[in-house]
Amino acid sequence: MLSDKAIYRYHRILGLVGGLFILILTVTGSILVVEKQVDALLNPNLTQVDPTGQRQPYNQLMATIHRYYPTAQVRSLQFSDRDPREPVRVDLMASGLRLWVTMNPYTGTIIAARNADTTLIRRARELHENLLLEPVGGFIMGLAGICLLGSVLTGTWYYRRSLLSVFNIGVRWNKSPRIVYADIHKWLGVVALLFMLLMSATGIFFHWEQIERSFGGEASGQPRVESIALTAIPVDSALAVAKTTIADFQPQRIDFPKPGDSTLVIRGNLPGSIRLLGKFNVSATIDARNGHYISGMDAKDAGLEYIAEHIFEELHFGRYGGWVTQVIYILLALATAVVTVTGLFLWYLKK
User: Fold this and answer.
1) Smallest Cα–Cα separation from 98: which of 127, 69, 78?
2) Looking at residue 233, what DSSP letter applies?
3) DSSP 209
4) In the beta sheet, which residues pair with residue 78?
5) What is residue 204's DSSP assignment?
6) What sign has the CA pseudo-torsion 9, 11, 17, 19?
7) Contact yes or no for 334/26 (Cβ under 8 A)
8) What whole-number distance in Å separates Cα of residue 291 and Cα of residue 54?
9) What is the pLDDT along the chain (351 residues), one digit of tens a residue?
10) Dihedral, CA atoms, 23, 24, 27, 30, nearest 10 degrees?
């Protein structure tokens, strides 16, 4: 059995090693919790369009994209039939750049084209996941998650006898800086305890998946086919088939075929879809060459690994409870940052 003194030593070491990276995780994670609102705030002209007239067919929108970007590989198309003011966003690769092209679905005009990799939310995500140093940065941030988890567990064990007494003691502001920092550190540490455990555990899970992909690769069991021209894909008829086949289906995104593939995947939800199972609970796989229905999937009927992965992602980024969850997550992320900073101060004062 380890002594309490040894446990405390490990608690300090783990906090010191992961401290800077934990601060990066809390700041970037807070941005990602409200990424849609942040992007809308920075780009207000890209959030709404004037819904005048009829929406153009999606094949016509794709023809416009092909005209402006004839050699581009279209990755996805995001839209909302329920919100008439929401523009369409096309995600594509053109000349080595990943572009987000925003379109007016009524006029078919391109509102803006942005380099996705230079936007704040993409930079924040890359910094959060891999320090802008993929793949090495991903391993580092995975270790930071392990440090956070280890620091929380060792701190909880070390203070186990007085864990809840911090609420009775509070913060003794009239004491020395070391005692003030220690009180803040313990008080916020207990408040954010479950949050830090959740963030570290789910973060480690995602980075472990990244390591598996890096070393194991992704084998494809499907034969490769010739690339399909963008203008030859029957997008509108594919959407109609998906809606007809899956009752009450509400499509929101179309994933276009990757090079060597021939399937179009239409993602969306049903009226009773569970947000914790992912942003899109339902998908329909369509043959991109002729618009024929191939298969469908509902998240609630998926395997345990799929369900766990999507629940962990929703829990990690706080996407499941609207603005209330977002506010709580940001406050707890800030509490985690303060716990880290006060821990560093305590180490400095005790040197």
Assistant:
1) 69
2) S
3) H
4) 89, 253
5) H
6) negative
7) yes
8) 23
9) 678 999 999 999 999 999 999 999 999 999 999 999 999 999 998 989 999 999 999 999 999 999 999 999 999 999 998 889 999 999 999 999 999 999 999 999 999 999 999 999 999 999 999 999 988 899 999 999 999 999 999 999 999 988 889 999 999 999 999 999 999 999 999 999 999 999 999 999 988 877 666 666 554 555 677 788 999 999 999 999 999 999 999 999 999 999 889 999 999 999 999 999 999 999 999 999 999 999 999 999 999 989 999 999 999 999 888 899 999 999 999 999 999 999 999 998 876
10) -110
Q: What pLDDT, on the 0 to 100 scale, is given for residue 296?
A: 97
Contacts of 325 (CB under 8 A, 6+ apart): 318, 319
In Å, the largest CA–CA distance within the chain is 75
Terminal-residue alpha carbon distance, the chain? 27
Number of H helices, E strands in the chain: 11, 8
Give, in degrees to the nearest 5, the angle at Cα 188 between 192 and 322. Answer: 40
What distance in Å separates the CA atoms of residue 245 and residue 239, rounded to the nearest whole number? Answer: 10
List of residues 6+ apart from 234 with CB closer than 8 A: 59, 288, 290, 291
Handedness of CA 189, 194, 199, 203 (dihedral sign): positive
* DSSP assignments along 61-86, one per residue: HHHHHHHH-TT-EEEEEE--SS-TTP
Residue count of the chain, please give it: 351
Question: 320: Cβ–Cβ under 8 A, 6 or more apart, which residues?
Answer: 275, 276, 314
Token pair belonging to 308: 């766990």
Q: In whole angstroms, how far apart are CA 202 and each of 36, 145, 205, 240?
A: 22, 9, 5, 37
298 phi/psi in degrees, rounded to 5: -120, 130
Token pair of 189 as six digits: 């540490």
- The answer to whether the beta carbons of residues 115 and 102 sit under 8 Å apart is no
Considering only CA atoms, which of 341, 316, 276, 31 is closest in space to residue 145? Answer: 316
Mean pLDDT of the chain: 92
